[in-house]
């Protein structure tokens, strides 16, 4: 009987000890999953459309400029995705919306990205804040003040 009481006493004693953890995590209920379009944009688009490239040494306009040109306040996501796909699948001077960019950088080369991946990139671009260069806001406002001449195609 003494053995049983001793066993129960020791069991209760050890079961009541606090467990010290080496680390703790907080579950805030927010998913840390990264949108797949972000990863694709960073590996497929940012190479040329970087927000960190110098204004004078750029290969192409920054992605924020693409977003602002293709998405107005009334543009639906479906319209945005369709418009991006239209340009991407047929990048020609006649199909351009960013005439100033085409004049400065030339027409974007036709690239090989699946429709599914292009949808993911477009979806991410439409729904998320995109990094912009320090100089971009002033440049954008200046062009806006001028009436966006870069958007008006010159007839030849």
What overall form do the CA principal axes indicate? elongated
Q: Can you write the helix and strand succession as a string?
A: HHHHHHH
Question: Main beta sheet, described?
Answer: none
- The helix/strand class is mainly alpha
Q: Could you tell me the mean pLDDT?
A: 82
Strand proportion = under 5%
- Which bin fits the share of residues in helices? 40-55%
Termini separation: 107 Å
- Number of helical elements: 7
What's the gyration radius in Å?
A: 27 Å
How many strand elements?
0
Low-confidence stretches: 149-156
Descriptive notes:
The protein has a domain of 94 residues. The protein has seven helices and no strands. Helix 2 packs across helix 6 and helix 4 packs across helix 6. The chain starts with a helix and ends in an 11-residue tail after the last helix.
How would you summarize the topology of this molecule?
Elements: H1 2-15, H2 36-44, H3 63-70, H4 77-89, H5 99-105, H6 115-127, H7 136-145
Write a compact overview of the structure shown:
This protein is an all-alpha fold and 156 residues long. 47% of the residues lie in helices and 0% in strands.
Key structural traits:
about 45% helix; disordered C terminus; about 0% strand; mainly alpha; elongated; about 160 residues
């Amino acid at each position: 009987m003494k053995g049983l009481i001793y066993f129960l006493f020791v069991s209760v004693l050890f079961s009541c000890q606090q467990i010290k953890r080496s680390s703790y995590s907080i579950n805030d209920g927010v998913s840390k999953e990264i949108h797949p379009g972000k990863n694709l944009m960073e590996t497929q688009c940012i190479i040329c459309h970087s927000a960190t490239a110098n204004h004078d040494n750029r290969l192409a306009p920054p992605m924020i400029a693409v977003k602002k040109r293709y998405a107005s306040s009334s543009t639906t996501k479906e319209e945005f995705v369709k418009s991006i796909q239209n340009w991407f699948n047929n990048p020609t001077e006649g199909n351009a919306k960013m005439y100033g960019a085409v004049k400065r950088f030339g027409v974007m080369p036709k690239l090989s990205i699946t429709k599914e991946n292009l949808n993911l990139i477009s979806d991410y671009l439409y729904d998320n804040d995109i990094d912009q260069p320090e100089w971009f806001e002033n440049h954008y406002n200046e062009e806006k003040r001028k009436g966006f001449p870069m958007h008006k195609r010159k007839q030849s």
